[in-house]
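Researcher: Quick test of sequence recovery. Tokens follow.
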């Protein structure tokens, strides 16, 4: 995977949240200078018994939060197992942010559709959408299914 062209940060785990029996979120201390928009993602590199494992993950935290969070379905693969084994105080390398699937500010109506694990990346946008709607006097309609 080509990871050139973006910043790399080392960050510490500050929380692990079990969302369902096979989905977890890992919260990291937000590094200084890690500024991102809703809809962006990053490469996350964690240590495993085989060395460093790296995968692209969507940011599931809102850019307004003081932490960054990634949510992953647990699949039993090497990266997934290493991610699931993370504990408070562990460190990971985060390369990003990346991606341009961000919310435009000049549209009056926005529709987003997600399924499966993708719902977590969209859920953090709810905060942004509702703030945007209040500022622009819109009434958002939100449909979600888990």
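Model:
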């Amino acid at each position: 995977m080509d990871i050139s062209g973006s910043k790399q940060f080392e960050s510490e785990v500050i929380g692990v949240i079990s969302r369902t029996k096979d989905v977890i979120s890992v919260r990291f201390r937000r590094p200084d200078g890690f500024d991102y928009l809703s809809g962006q993602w990053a490469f996350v590199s964690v240590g495993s018994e085989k060395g460093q494992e790296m995968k692209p993950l969507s940011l599931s935290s809102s850019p307004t939060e003081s932490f960054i969070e990634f949510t992953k379905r647990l699949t039993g693969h090497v990266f997934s197992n290493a991610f699931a084994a993370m504990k408070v105080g562990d460190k990971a390398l985060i390369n990003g942010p990346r991606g341009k699937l961000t919310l435009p500010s000049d549209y009056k109506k926005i529709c987003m559709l997600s399924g499966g694990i993708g719902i977590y990346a969209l859920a953090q946008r709810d905060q942004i959408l509702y703030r945007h709607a209040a500022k622009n006097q819109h009434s958002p309609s939100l449909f979600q299914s888990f």
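The mean pLDDT is 82.
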